[in-house]
Design goal:
Number of helices: 9
Order of helices and strands: HHHHHHHHEEH
Strand order of the largest sheet: 1-2
Number of strands: 2
Oligomer: single chain
Strand content: under 5%
Radius of gyration: 19 Å
Structural class: mainly alpha
Helix content: over 70%
Largest sheet: 2 strands, antiparallel
Length: about 200
């Protein structure tokens, strides 16, 4: 029995993922305007024009990166809501999920911070909508931890926590999990917990 996915389709999906990964790294390093399709193609071992088989243009590639990560964040947040009933477990799980994202996708955070304005109008609206929906997931979780607090305060707490965690690409750029013997993941999780439960 086969999975229905051919070797060619698998290879195309792998190449697609590699392009997204290398493009995010290059955009993070040089900025969207400082990277050409030829640069990205060279990073994955194909010619610049060959990238058009995967993406219409460089802006579409940026959109795939930023819309894609926003979709993954929202899906992950909703999964936390669906799999945990206890308020504390939900909070611990959503913190761990977002910290893991920040450590794994540090390049994407840097790209979004700097190059969101370079998206097409449609992709930028999509990213903003997905981000709002992700914040609402956090508010739903925080409302069970702080049932006496209003939604505006919970939104401030969520955004403050994002700022703390998402600063990781700038403060510990070389550390994905540990740096100089310090457990970066543990530090971020404990600080986020303190921020959200204060």
């Amino acid at each position: 029995m086969t999975s229905g996915v051919t070797d060619r389709e698998r290879a195309k999906a792998d190449r697609h993922a590699a392009i997204l990964h290398e493009a995010a790294a290059l955009f993070a390093e040089r900025g969207f305007s400082g990277v050409s399709l030829e640069d990205i193609g060279g990073a994955v071992g194909v010619s610049g024009p060959a990238l058009y088989r995967h993406f219409a243009n460089k802006q579409a590639l940026l959109g795939a990166i930023l819309v894609g990560v926003s979709e993954r964040l929202l899906a992950g947040g909703r999964a936390v809501l669906a799999t945990h009933d206890d308020a504390v477990e939900r909070l611990e799980s959503i913190i761990a999920f977002h910290v893991e994202f920040a450590l794994r996708d540090a390049d994407v955070i840097r790209v979004q911070d700097r190059d969101l304005a370079s998206l097409s109008d449609e992709d930028r609206h999509t990213v903003r909508r997905l981000q709002r929906e992700y914040v609402e997931v956090w508010i739903a979780i925080l409302s069970t931890v702080h049932p006496d607090r209003d939604e505006d305060e919970l939104r401030v707490r969520a955004h403050a926590c994002f700022g703390l965690i998402n600063s990781t690409p700038y403060t510990v750029r070389a550390a994905r999990t540990e740096s100089g013997g310090r457990d970066v993941r543990g530090i971020l999780q404990s600080m986020a917990r303190a921020c959200l439960t204060a």
